[in-house]
Amino acid sequence: MSRFWSDVNKRLSPYTPGEQPRNKKYIKLNTNENPYPPSPGVIAAIEKNLNGSLRLYPDPSCEELRTAIAEYYNLKKEQVYAGNGSDELLAFAFLAFFNPGGPRILFPDITYSFYKVYAALLKIDYELVLLDDDFSIHPEMFFKNNGGVIIANPNAPTGKFLPLESVADILEHNSSKVVIIDEAYIDFGGDSAVGLIEKYPNLLVIQTFSKSRALAGLRVGFALGREELIEGLDRIKNSVNSYTLDRLSLAGAIAAIEDDAYFQYVRRKITASRERVSGELREIGFKVIPSMANFIFITHPFIPAAELFLKLKGKGILVRYFKEPGIDNYLRVSIGTDEEMDLFTGALKEIPGI
Ligand SMILES: Cc1ncc(COP(=O)(O)O)c(C=O)c1O
Fold first, then answer.
1. Of 33, 161, 182, 183, which is best to mutate to test ligand 1, by the most ligand atoms within 8 angstroms of its C-beta?
2. Whole-angstrom Cα distance, residue 56 to residue 1?
3. Owning domain of residue 306
4. How high is the pLDDT of residue 206?
5. pLDDT, the chain, mean
6. Is 354 part of any domain?
7. CB within 8 A of 270, min separation 6: which ones?
8. I want to staple 119 with a disulfide (CB 3.0 to 4.6 A). Which of 56, 124, 235, 295 is the partner?
9. Whose CA is nearest to atom 12 of ligand 1?
10. Which tens digit of pLDDT belongs to each residue from 264-277?
11. pLDDT (mean) for 145-168
12. Which of 203, 229, 259 represents a domain boundary (last residue)?
Protein backbone atom coordinates (compact mmCIF):
# COMPACT_ATOMS: atom_id res chain seq x y z
CA MET A 1 0.00 0.00 0.00
CA SER A 2 1.40 3.38 -0.95
CA ARG A 3 0.26 6.77 0.23
CA PHE A 4 0.47 7.87 -3.43
CA TRP A 5 -2.24 5.47 -4.58
CA SER A 6 -5.73 6.77 -5.39
CA ASP A 7 -8.62 5.66 -3.18
CA VAL A 8 -9.85 3.35 -5.96
CA ASN A 9 -6.40 1.79 -6.22
CA LYS A 10 -6.19 1.20 -2.48
CA ARG A 11 -9.49 -0.67 -2.57
CA LEU A 12 -8.60 -3.01 -5.45
CA SER A 13 -7.87 -6.70 -5.20
CA PRO A 14 -6.40 -7.33 -8.66
CA TYR A 15 -6.64 -10.59 -10.59
CA THR A 16 -3.72 -12.98 -10.14
CA PRO A 17 -2.64 -14.44 -13.49
CA GLY A 18 -1.42 -18.04 -13.62
CA GLU A 19 2.30 -18.48 -13.13
CA GLN A 20 4.51 -17.97 -16.23
CA PRO A 21 7.77 -19.61 -15.11
CA ARG A 22 10.95 -18.12 -16.53
CA ASN A 23 13.79 -20.27 -15.24
CA LYS A 24 12.64 -23.82 -14.77
CA LYS A 25 11.16 -25.70 -17.70
CA TYR A 26 7.73 -26.91 -16.64
CA ILE A 27 5.04 -28.75 -18.52
CA LYS A 28 2.61 -25.86 -18.45
CA LEU A 29 -0.95 -26.98 -17.89
CA ASN A 30 -1.92 -23.96 -15.79
CA THR A 31 -3.12 -21.09 -18.02
CA ASN A 32 -5.30 -22.77 -20.68
CA GLU A 33 -2.93 -21.88 -23.47
CA ASN A 34 -3.07 -23.92 -26.65
CA PRO A 35 -0.21 -26.45 -26.71
CA TYR A 36 0.10 -26.18 -30.49
CA PRO A 37 1.63 -23.27 -32.39
CA PRO A 38 -0.58 -20.82 -34.27
CA SER A 39 -1.30 -21.39 -37.96
CA PRO A 40 1.85 -20.96 -40.09
CA GLY A 41 -0.14 -18.33 -42.00
CA VAL A 42 -0.18 -16.19 -38.85
CA ILE A 43 3.59 -16.15 -38.56
CA ALA A 44 3.95 -15.36 -42.28
CA ALA A 45 1.45 -12.49 -42.03
CA ILE A 46 3.22 -10.99 -39.03
CA GLU A 47 6.61 -11.28 -40.74
CA LYS A 48 5.21 -9.59 -43.82
CA ASN A 49 4.16 -6.64 -41.68
CA LEU A 50 7.46 -6.33 -39.82
CA ASN A 51 8.60 -3.33 -41.78
CA GLY A 52 8.72 0.43 -41.88
CA SER A 53 4.92 0.66 -41.79
CA LEU A 54 5.21 0.22 -38.03
CA ARG A 55 5.88 3.97 -37.87
CA LEU A 56 2.20 4.45 -38.71
CA TYR A 57 -0.68 3.97 -36.30
CA PRO A 58 -2.79 0.88 -36.97
CA ASP A 59 -6.36 1.11 -38.27
CA PRO A 60 -8.29 2.25 -35.16
CA SER A 61 -11.51 0.63 -36.35
CA CYS A 62 -9.89 -2.71 -37.30
CA GLU A 63 -11.99 -2.79 -40.50
CA GLU A 64 -10.28 -5.70 -42.20
CA LEU A 65 -10.24 -7.95 -39.14
CA ARG A 66 -13.85 -7.13 -38.29
CA THR A 67 -14.87 -7.90 -41.87
CA ALA A 68 -13.09 -11.27 -41.72
CA ILE A 69 -14.75 -12.15 -38.39
CA ALA A 70 -18.14 -10.93 -39.63
CA GLU A 71 -17.89 -13.15 -42.71
CA TYR A 72 -16.90 -16.11 -40.56
CA TYR A 73 -19.97 -15.72 -38.32
CA ASN A 74 -22.35 -14.52 -41.00
CA LEU A 75 -22.82 -11.12 -39.39
CA LYS A 76 -22.33 -7.52 -40.50
CA LYS A 77 -19.01 -5.80 -39.82
CA GLU A 78 -20.94 -3.31 -37.66
CA GLN A 79 -21.90 -6.23 -35.39
CA VAL A 80 -18.26 -7.02 -34.60
CA TYR A 81 -15.88 -5.28 -32.23
CA ALA A 82 -12.21 -6.29 -32.05
CA GLY A 83 -9.90 -5.50 -29.15
CA ASN A 84 -6.79 -6.32 -27.19
CA GLY A 85 -7.73 -9.69 -25.71
CA SER A 86 -11.12 -10.49 -24.27
CA ASP A 87 -10.03 -9.31 -20.82
CA GLU A 88 -9.85 -5.75 -22.07
CA LEU A 89 -13.10 -6.21 -23.92
CA LEU A 90 -14.83 -7.48 -20.80
CA ALA A 91 -13.64 -4.44 -18.89
CA PHE A 92 -14.95 -2.17 -21.67
CA ALA A 93 -18.26 -4.05 -21.64
CA PHE A 94 -18.65 -3.55 -17.88
CA LEU A 95 -18.05 0.16 -18.43
CA ALA A 96 -20.31 0.34 -21.45
CA PHE A 97 -23.35 -1.55 -20.13
CA PHE A 98 -23.36 -1.83 -16.31
CA ASN A 99 -24.08 1.04 -13.92
CA PRO A 100 -22.38 1.89 -10.64
CA GLY A 101 -25.08 2.39 -8.03
CA GLY A 102 -27.65 0.58 -10.22
CA PRO A 103 -29.29 -2.75 -9.49
CA ARG A 104 -26.78 -5.51 -8.88
CA ILE A 105 -25.36 -7.39 -11.85
CA LEU A 106 -25.53 -11.18 -11.68
CA PHE A 107 -22.91 -13.81 -12.32
CA PRO A 108 -22.29 -17.34 -11.02
CA ASP A 109 -20.52 -17.65 -7.67
CA ILE A 110 -17.94 -19.90 -9.29
CA THR A 111 -16.69 -18.35 -12.50
CA TYR A 112 -13.88 -16.36 -14.10
CA SER A 113 -12.48 -14.36 -11.21
CA PHE A 114 -11.85 -11.25 -13.30
CA TYR A 115 -15.59 -10.38 -13.18
CA LYS A 116 -15.36 -9.49 -9.49
CA VAL A 117 -12.24 -7.46 -10.17
CA TYR A 118 -13.91 -5.34 -12.87
CA ALA A 119 -16.98 -4.85 -10.70
CA ALA A 120 -14.83 -3.64 -7.79
CA LEU A 121 -12.76 -1.39 -10.03
CA LEU A 122 -15.84 0.22 -11.54
CA LYS A 123 -17.89 0.22 -8.29
CA ILE A 124 -20.59 -1.96 -9.86
CA ASP A 125 -22.55 -3.93 -7.27
CA TYR A 126 -22.95 -7.61 -7.96
CA GLU A 127 -24.76 -10.65 -6.67
CA LEU A 128 -23.24 -14.10 -6.92
CA VAL A 129 -25.68 -16.70 -8.24
CA LEU A 130 -25.19 -20.06 -6.55
CA LEU A 131 -24.38 -23.10 -8.62
CA ASP A 132 -25.53 -26.54 -7.56
CA ASP A 133 -23.24 -29.22 -6.18
CA ASP A 134 -22.12 -30.40 -9.60
CA PHE A 135 -21.44 -26.78 -10.67
CA SER A 136 -24.54 -26.53 -12.90
CA ILE A 137 -26.06 -23.13 -13.56
CA HIS A 138 -29.82 -22.89 -13.05
CA PRO A 139 -31.25 -20.35 -15.51
CA GLU A 140 -34.21 -19.48 -13.19
CA MET A 141 -31.72 -18.00 -10.73
CA PHE A 142 -31.12 -15.24 -13.28
CA PHE A 143 -34.83 -14.37 -13.60
CA LYS A 144 -34.84 -11.49 -11.15
CA ASN A 145 -34.31 -7.76 -11.11
CA ASN A 146 -30.69 -6.99 -11.97
CA GLY A 147 -28.37 -4.52 -13.63
CA GLY A 148 -27.07 -7.00 -16.21
CA VAL A 149 -25.79 -10.55 -16.45
CA ILE A 150 -22.46 -12.10 -17.31
CA ILE A 151 -21.90 -15.82 -17.77
CA ALA A 152 -18.85 -17.65 -19.05
CA ASN A 153 -20.02 -20.46 -21.32
CA PRO A 154 -18.40 -22.94 -21.01
CA ASN A 155 -17.84 -21.76 -17.47
CA ALA A 156 -14.38 -21.36 -16.01
CA PRO A 157 -12.82 -23.04 -14.14
CA THR A 158 -15.43 -25.82 -14.22
CA GLY A 159 -15.61 -26.35 -18.01
CA LYS A 160 -19.37 -26.93 -17.78
CA PHE A 161 -21.51 -25.86 -20.71
CA LEU A 162 -24.91 -24.22 -20.35
CA PRO A 163 -27.19 -25.36 -23.22
CA LEU A 164 -28.32 -22.68 -25.64
CA GLU A 165 -32.02 -23.09 -24.64
CA SER A 166 -31.01 -21.96 -21.15
CA VAL A 167 -29.01 -19.03 -22.52
CA ALA A 168 -32.06 -18.03 -24.58
CA ASP A 169 -34.25 -18.31 -21.50
CA ILE A 170 -31.94 -15.97 -19.57
CA LEU A 171 -31.97 -13.49 -22.47
CA GLU A 172 -35.76 -13.68 -22.66
CA HIS A 173 -36.16 -12.92 -18.95
CA ASN A 174 -33.70 -10.01 -19.02
CA SER A 175 -34.79 -8.17 -22.14
CA SER A 176 -34.05 -4.71 -20.73
CA LYS A 177 -30.54 -5.60 -19.56
CA VAL A 178 -27.38 -6.60 -21.38
CA VAL A 179 -26.48 -10.27 -21.04
CA ILE A 180 -22.82 -10.96 -21.77
CA ILE A 181 -21.88 -14.51 -22.74
CA ASP A 182 -18.13 -14.94 -22.43
CA GLU A 183 -17.29 -17.69 -24.92
CA ALA A 184 -13.53 -17.87 -24.41
CA TYR A 185 -13.73 -21.69 -24.61
CA ILE A 186 -16.63 -22.15 -27.01
CA ASP A 187 -14.61 -23.75 -29.81
CA PHE A 188 -13.95 -26.92 -27.82
CA GLY A 189 -17.37 -28.47 -28.23
CA GLY A 190 -20.12 -26.08 -27.10
CA ASP A 191 -22.61 -24.30 -29.38
CA SER A 192 -22.05 -20.57 -29.66
CA ALA A 193 -24.83 -18.14 -28.80
CA VAL A 194 -23.91 -16.12 -31.92
CA GLY A 195 -27.04 -17.42 -33.67
CA LEU A 196 -29.19 -15.78 -30.97
CA ILE A 197 -27.97 -12.26 -31.79
CA GLU A 198 -30.62 -11.81 -34.45
CA LYS A 199 -33.40 -12.49 -31.96
CA TYR A 200 -31.98 -10.83 -28.83
CA PRO A 201 -30.79 -7.22 -28.97
CA ASN A 202 -29.52 -7.52 -25.38
CA LEU A 203 -26.96 -10.26 -26.17
CA LEU A 204 -23.23 -9.59 -26.34
CA VAL A 205 -21.03 -12.58 -27.16
CA ILE A 206 -17.33 -12.24 -26.35
CA GLN A 207 -14.68 -14.55 -27.80
CA THR A 208 -10.90 -14.70 -27.98
CA PHE A 209 -8.07 -15.82 -30.24
CA SER A 210 -6.10 -16.87 -27.15
CA LYS A 211 -7.34 -20.43 -26.78
CA SER A 212 -8.63 -22.23 -29.88
CA ARG A 213 -6.53 -20.13 -32.26
CA ALA A 214 -3.36 -20.47 -30.19
CA LEU A 215 -2.69 -16.74 -30.01
CA ALA A 216 -2.64 -15.90 -26.30
CA GLY A 217 0.60 -14.01 -26.93
CA LEU A 218 -0.92 -11.77 -29.60
CA ARG A 219 -3.79 -10.47 -27.44
CA VAL A 220 -6.82 -10.43 -29.69
CA GLY A 221 -10.42 -10.74 -28.59
CA PHE A 222 -13.72 -9.83 -30.20
CA ALA A 223 -17.34 -9.14 -29.37
CA LEU A 224 -20.42 -9.92 -31.42
CA GLY A 225 -23.79 -8.30 -30.98
CA ARG A 226 -26.28 -5.78 -32.32
CA GLU A 227 -24.86 -2.57 -33.80
CA GLU A 228 -25.90 -0.43 -30.81
CA LEU A 229 -23.91 -2.64 -28.41
CA ILE A 230 -20.85 -2.59 -30.65
CA GLU A 231 -21.11 1.19 -30.91
CA GLY A 232 -21.32 1.30 -27.10
CA LEU A 233 -18.03 -0.58 -26.83
CA ASP A 234 -16.42 1.61 -29.45
CA ARG A 235 -17.33 4.75 -27.50
CA ILE A 236 -15.55 3.38 -24.43
CA LYS A 237 -12.52 2.37 -26.50
CA ASN A 238 -12.28 5.84 -28.00
CA SER A 239 -12.38 7.28 -24.51
CA VAL A 240 -9.44 5.14 -23.33
CA ASN A 241 -7.16 4.20 -26.24
CA SER A 242 -8.19 4.30 -29.89
CA TYR A 243 -5.50 1.84 -31.02
CA THR A 244 -5.95 -1.21 -28.86
CA LEU A 245 -4.84 -3.61 -31.63
CA ASP A 246 -1.44 -3.05 -33.20
CA ARG A 247 -0.49 -3.68 -36.82
CA LEU A 248 1.06 -7.08 -36.15
CA SER A 249 -1.90 -8.32 -34.10
CA LEU A 250 -4.31 -7.24 -36.80
CA ALA A 251 -2.33 -9.02 -39.52
CA GLY A 252 -1.90 -12.18 -37.44
CA ALA A 253 -5.54 -12.35 -36.38
CA ILE A 254 -6.80 -11.96 -39.96
CA ALA A 255 -4.52 -14.80 -41.07
CA ALA A 256 -5.79 -16.97 -38.18
CA ILE A 257 -9.41 -16.51 -39.23
CA GLU A 258 -8.51 -17.30 -42.82
CA ASP A 259 -6.87 -20.64 -41.99
CA ASP A 260 -9.98 -22.54 -41.05
CA ALA A 261 -8.52 -25.98 -41.84
CA TYR A 262 -5.78 -25.54 -39.25
CA PHE A 263 -8.26 -24.19 -36.67
CA GLN A 264 -10.55 -27.18 -37.14
CA TYR A 265 -7.61 -29.59 -36.91
CA VAL A 266 -6.25 -28.11 -33.68
CA ARG A 267 -9.53 -27.82 -31.86
CA ARG A 268 -10.51 -31.39 -32.74
CA LYS A 269 -7.14 -32.64 -31.55
CA ILE A 270 -7.49 -30.88 -28.19
CA THR A 271 -11.07 -32.07 -27.75
CA ALA A 272 -10.01 -35.67 -28.45
CA SER A 273 -7.11 -35.41 -25.95
CA ARG A 274 -9.49 -34.00 -23.33
CA GLU A 275 -11.88 -36.92 -23.70
CA ARG A 276 -9.08 -39.50 -23.58
CA VAL A 277 -7.47 -37.98 -20.47
CA SER A 278 -10.83 -37.50 -18.72
CA GLY A 279 -11.49 -41.24 -19.17
CA GLU A 280 -8.05 -42.23 -17.91
CA LEU A 281 -8.37 -40.02 -14.84
CA ARG A 282 -11.74 -41.49 -13.98
CA GLU A 283 -10.21 -44.95 -14.23
CA ILE A 284 -7.63 -44.05 -11.59
CA GLY A 285 -10.24 -42.69 -9.21
CA PHE A 286 -10.57 -39.00 -10.02
CA LYS A 287 -13.85 -37.18 -10.34
CA VAL A 288 -13.68 -35.23 -13.60
CA ILE A 289 -16.33 -32.61 -14.27
CA PRO A 290 -17.53 -33.16 -17.89
CA SER A 291 -15.76 -30.39 -19.78
CA MET A 292 -16.50 -28.57 -23.02
CA ALA A 293 -13.35 -26.46 -22.71
CA ASN A 294 -9.61 -26.93 -23.27
CA PHE A 295 -9.15 -27.79 -19.60
CA ILE A 296 -10.59 -30.19 -17.07
CA PHE A 297 -11.56 -29.65 -13.45
CA ILE A 298 -10.69 -32.62 -11.29
CA THR A 299 -10.73 -33.77 -7.70
CA HIS A 300 -9.50 -36.89 -5.92
CA PRO A 301 -11.56 -38.59 -3.18
CA PHE A 302 -8.62 -38.96 -0.75
CA ILE A 303 -5.73 -36.72 -1.70
CA PRO A 304 -6.27 -32.98 -1.19
CA ALA A 305 -5.88 -30.88 -4.35
CA ALA A 306 -3.39 -28.55 -2.64
CA GLU A 307 -1.14 -31.54 -2.00
CA LEU A 308 -1.51 -32.86 -5.56
CA PHE A 309 -0.69 -29.40 -6.90
CA LEU A 310 2.61 -29.30 -5.00
CA LYS A 311 3.53 -32.88 -5.83
CA LEU A 312 2.93 -32.25 -9.53
CA LYS A 313 4.93 -29.02 -9.37
CA GLY A 314 7.78 -30.99 -7.78
CA LYS A 315 7.63 -33.29 -10.79
CA GLY A 316 7.84 -30.36 -13.20
CA ILE A 317 4.13 -30.13 -14.04
CA LEU A 318 2.25 -26.90 -13.41
CA VAL A 319 -1.53 -27.00 -13.04
CA ARG A 320 -3.85 -24.38 -11.53
CA TYR A 321 -5.06 -24.51 -7.94
CA PHE A 322 -7.57 -21.94 -6.67
CA LYS A 323 -7.65 -21.58 -2.92
CA GLU A 324 -11.26 -20.44 -2.94
CA PRO A 325 -14.37 -21.69 -1.13
CA GLY A 326 -16.22 -24.44 -2.98
CA ILE A 327 -13.36 -25.27 -5.36
CA ASP A 328 -10.34 -25.56 -3.07
CA ASN A 329 -10.24 -29.32 -3.47
CA TYR A 330 -10.09 -29.16 -7.25
CA LEU A 331 -7.33 -28.73 -9.80
CA ARG A 332 -7.81 -27.11 -13.17
CA VAL A 333 -5.67 -28.84 -15.76
CA SER A 334 -5.22 -27.37 -19.24
CA ILE A 335 -5.15 -29.85 -22.10
CA GLY A 336 -1.64 -30.08 -23.52
CA THR A 337 -0.25 -32.27 -26.28
CA ASP A 338 -0.87 -36.01 -25.96
CA GLU A 339 2.73 -36.43 -24.89
CA GLU A 340 2.34 -33.81 -22.13
CA MET A 341 -0.90 -35.37 -20.95
CA ASP A 342 0.76 -38.80 -20.77
CA LEU A 343 3.50 -37.29 -18.61
CA PHE A 344 0.81 -35.70 -16.44
CA THR A 345 -1.15 -38.92 -15.88
CA GLY A 346 2.14 -40.81 -15.46
CA ALA A 347 3.23 -38.37 -12.74
CA LEU A 348 -0.12 -38.73 -10.96
CA LYS A 349 0.16 -42.51 -10.97
CA GLU A 350 3.51 -42.25 -9.14
CA ILE A 351 1.84 -40.42 -6.22
CA PRO A 352 1.17 -42.80 -3.33
CA GLY A 353 -2.57 -43.32 -2.84
CA ILE A 354 -3.48 -43.02 -6.53
C1 LIG B 1 -13.57 -17.15 -19.12
C2 LIG B 1 -12.46 -16.34 -19.68
N3 LIG B 1 -12.74 -15.20 -20.29
C4 LIG B 1 -11.77 -14.42 -20.81
C5 LIG B 1 -10.44 -14.79 -20.72
C6 LIG B 1 -9.40 -13.84 -21.25
O7 LIG B 1 -8.83 -14.22 -22.42
P8 LIG B 1 -7.94 -13.23 -23.28
O9 LIG B 1 -7.82 -11.93 -22.56
O10 LIG B 1 -6.64 -13.92 -23.44
O11 LIG B 1 -8.67 -13.07 -24.58
C12 LIG B 1 -10.10 -15.97 -20.10
C13 LIG B 1 -8.68 -16.35 -20.00
O14 LIG B 1 -8.25 -17.25 -19.37
C15 LIG B 1 -11.12 -16.76 -19.55
O16 LIG B 1 -10.85 -17.89 -18.90
1. 182
2. 39
3. 7-37+261-349
4. 98
5. 97
6. no
7. 34, 35, 36, 188, 212, 294, 335
8. 124
9. 184
10. 999 999 999 999 99
11. 98
12. 259
